[in-house]
Specification:
- Strand 3 (63-68), helix 4 and strand 4 form a beta-alpha-beta unit.
- The chain has helices at residues 3-10, 21-27, 48-59, 90-104, 125-128, 133-139, 146-150, 153-160, 168-171, 173-188, 200-214, 253-261, 268-275, 280-292, 298-312, 314-328, 337-343, 354-359, 363-369, 376-384, and strands at residues 15-16, 31-36, 63-68, 120-123, 192-196, 219-223, 349-352, 361-362, 388-390, 393-394, 400-401, 411-416, 420-426.
- The termini are far apart.
- The strands form 3 sheets. It has a 6-stranded mixed β-sheet with strand order 1-6-5-2-3-4, with helices on both faces.
- By secondary structure, the chain is an alpha/beta fold.
- The chain contains 20 helices and 13 strands.
- Helices cover 44% and strands 13% of the residues.
- The protein folds into 3 domains: 3-223, Rossmann fold (3-Layer(aba) Sandwich), CATH 3.40.50.620; 253-329, Tyrosyl-Transfer RNA Synthetase (Orthogonal Bundle); 346-426, Structural Genomics Hypothetical 15.5 Kd Protein In mrcA-pckA Intergenic Region, Chain A.
- The protein is globular.
- The structure holds one RNA strand.
Length: 427
RNA sequence: GGGCCGGUGCCCGAGCGGCCAAUGGGAUCUGGCUGUAAACCAGACGGCUUUGCCUACGGGGGUUCAAAUCCCUCCCGGCCCA
């Protein structure tokens, strides 16, 4: 199975400047890059598609370059954004780039042993923050017309609006990204840029600029954006606006596993193809399982296990799966102490003195102190709506919680809604 | 620098002196149904020591018994002109 056929099967290519570039990737020896925005200290689940592209092409014998946008991050990509983005501080960016650097090692082989396919991690701050403005405008800006930049779909949305503008700073962003490609081409022989389909405009400005400045013909490929059935972007946590992160301290392996397990049926074919390295036969089989026995959620299980294993390792994947089963399929009262602690390992916890629980705690107070409600008013609301459970038993506003129901004499598992957990340990 | 328009709760957006914690939509949350889905249905959605009180409609000041609503001023955004 060569890369071309695999990528076709998985539907990883949305647009390409030249169809033959897939053949070149299949043959190996190409140097290709993807830029990552250092807007946070961790990559998020949505980036996994891009990270996997680099991993896939490295496995096929090419050299991947992960480019951290330490320089472009100072500006902020306006593509398809409807408002100006807040600027990040230099220190913040530096910290974020470090965080991302640490994560990528899990997915790409950066060791010298990889030879000509050894992955590189570069930071465009290294050249963007040092190039003199006048030089940049003469050598780079001369090659790009404002007309063509304004014609890009990605900035049109902003130009057409009458309530917000587009600052010159953000407008100039794509020029910086294009210049990255020039540097990578000259310094590292990079001939291909990949990205999400929202990057098509930026990428083609880059390929044009490289040709004009160096005479080298280079290419661009975009991958489809992963969307939910309702058209929303994929990767925000269960309902909330919280992103699903790849950093275990921001999104626990259990939470990541649960998130993927809950993926709606319609997105599983895409998730299988974009996020996993399962072989084609297995993927087709799981597609079929979703159609014939959706309630078993075999595809979701396979995705959750594969992704957690890829991101956090096999042990984490197995533990997350076991925890989910214990929490949702078995009675919590039947769990032995070790398993119980395992199950709630990811959940926040607090230690309470035996004496204060002996008196009994008002349910609303309990919720606020556990951080499951942000105010007493909200806590009362949850209680009235029947969304609060202690040890999987629903409680109401009149309940005074005491230690008598504690599991193994010392654990109270407080739950709000479907899956917001907090463990109270009685000491 | 000049002219015009605008800044309302997480977002969009009504309100334009009292009946306003502020219509509506979206997002979110909780419950129901279900497959720990989606869709759908119902409810909630500033806070508190909750028959009431406090804080809020860009900031500050003022008029008034009473202001998100009127006046002054400052800040911010958009459009047009220079």
């Amino acid at each position: 199975m060569n890369l071309r056929d695999d990528w076709r099967f998985r539907g990883l290519v949305q647009q390409a400047t030249d169809d033959a570039v897939l053949d070149r990737l299949s043959a190996g020896g190409v140097t290709a890059y993807i830029g990552f925005d250092p807007t946070a200290s961790s990559l998020h689940l949505g980036s996994l598609l891009q990270i996997n592209l680099l991993r896939r092409l490295q496995l096929a014998g090419n050299r991947p370059i992960a480019l951290a946008g330490g320089g472009t991050g100072l500006i902020g990509d306006p593509s398809f954004k409807d408002v100006e983005r807040p600027l990040l501080s230099l220190e913040q960016l530096r910290a974020n780039v470090e965080g991302i650097r640490a994560q990528l090692g899990r997915f790409l082989d950066f060791s010298p042993g990889a030879g000509s396919t050894q992955a590189l991690l570069l930071n465009n701050a290294d050249w963007l923050t040092t190039v003199p403005l006048t030089e940049f405008l003469r050598d780079v800006g001369k090659h790009v017309t404002v007309n063509q930049m304004m014609a890009k779909e990605s900035v049109k949305t902003r130009l057409d609006r009458d309530d917000v503008g587009l600052s010159f700073t953000e407008f100039a962003y794509s020029l910086l990204q294009a210049y990255d490609f020039v540097r990578l081409n000259l310094d590292h022989g990079c001939t291909l840029q990949l990205g999400g389909s929202d990057q098509w405009g930026n990428i083609t400005i880059g390929t044009d600029l490289v040709r004009k400045m160096t005479g080298h013909v280079v290419d661009g490929i975009t991958s489809p954006l992963l969307l939910r059935a309702d058209g929303q972007k994929f990767g925000k946590s269960e309902g909330g606006n919280e992103r699903v992160w790849l950093d275990a301290t921001l999104t626990s392996p259990f939470a990541l596993h649960q998130f993927l397990l809950n993926a709606e049926d319609a997105t599983t074919p895409a998730l299988l193809r974009f996020f996993t390295f399962l072989d084609h036969a297995t993927i087709l089989e799981l597609d079929g399982a979703t159609r014939t026995a959706p309630q078993k959620r075999q595809a979701q299980r396979a995705i959750a296990n594969a992704v957690v294993e890829l991101v956090h390792g096999g042990d984490a994947a197995r533990q997350a799966e076991r925890a989910g089963e214990a929490l949702f399929a078995e009675s919590i009262h039947d769990l032995d102490e070790a398993t119980l602690l395992d199950v709630v390992a990811d959940a926040p916890s607090s230690t309470w003195s035996k004496s204060e629980l002996d008196v009994g705690v008002e349910a609303a107070t309990l919720l606020v102190r556990c951080g499951l409600a942000s105010s007493r008013a909200e806590a009362r609301r949850f209680l009235e709506q029947g969304g609060v459970y202690v040890n999987n038993v629903r409680v109401d506003a009149t309940t005074r919680v005491d230690g008598s129901a504690a599991l193994h004499g010392r654990y109270l598992l407080v739950r709000r809604g479907r899956r917001q957990l907090h463990l109270v340990v009685v000491a």
